[in-house]
Amino acid sequence: MDQKIVDHLYHRTRIDAQITGTIILVAGMGVLALLMGDHFKPLQPGAEMWDYSRLVWVEAERGWVVERKLIEAGNFPPVTNHGNLEVREIQPISVSIIVVLGTFAVSYFLYASARRQTRLMNAVYANDPGKPYQRPWEQIRITFWALNVVLVFIMFYFIT
After folding, report:
1. Contact present, 2 and 9 (Cβ < 8 Å)
2. Could you tell me what percent of the chain has a pLDDT over 70?
3. What whole-number distance in Å separates Cα of residue 17 and Cα of residue 133?
């Protein structure tokens, strides 16, 4: 095998691995959002920046209320509840921010790595008239943009 062919195949497989990594990231965050999304609610009223918050379902208000406020008001457990007491603990806002920013940092890293690998792949046969099939960055970029749009929607679902 020619060294150019080996270099071209190497860079092309790296691009495919980065696309696969982005797909795994999007799928993993989707599963995490479905399984543990109710524990990450930084926009929930009563969420604390650094401490866990405990929320209690209050039937009269048809919503979640911070347990601390119910204890201060002398209404814990809520008198209006007829069923079992439902308590949910949510993560601090800081943890949610770290997860979201970390996810976007990993996504950007994969995007930038694929951009570099595409440039290297296309440079192997830059001036050769008999070059093999090469995908230009414009075609590969669309794949990453589509996956990142899905990732943004998943992260929006994750924090709301």
Report:
1. no
2. 99
3. 18
Q: Which of 89, 88, 91, 59 is nearest to 75 (CA)?
A: 59
The count of residues in the chain is 160
**Average pLDDT for the chain:** 89
At 53, is the secondary structure helix, strand, or coil?
A: strand
Using one digit for the tens of pLDDT, what is the confidence trace for 42-69? Answer: 888 888 899 998 988 888 888 888 888 8
Q: Could you give the CA distance from residue 116 to residue 72 in angstroms, rounded to a whole number?
A: 57
Tokens 């918050």 map to which residue?
53
Strand partners, 56: 65, 87
Backbone angles phi, psi at 57, to 5 degrees: -80, 125
List of residues 6+ apart from 41 with CB closer than 8 A: 47, 90, 91, 96, 159, 160
Q: Which of 98, 115, 78 is nearest to 159 (CA)?
A: 98
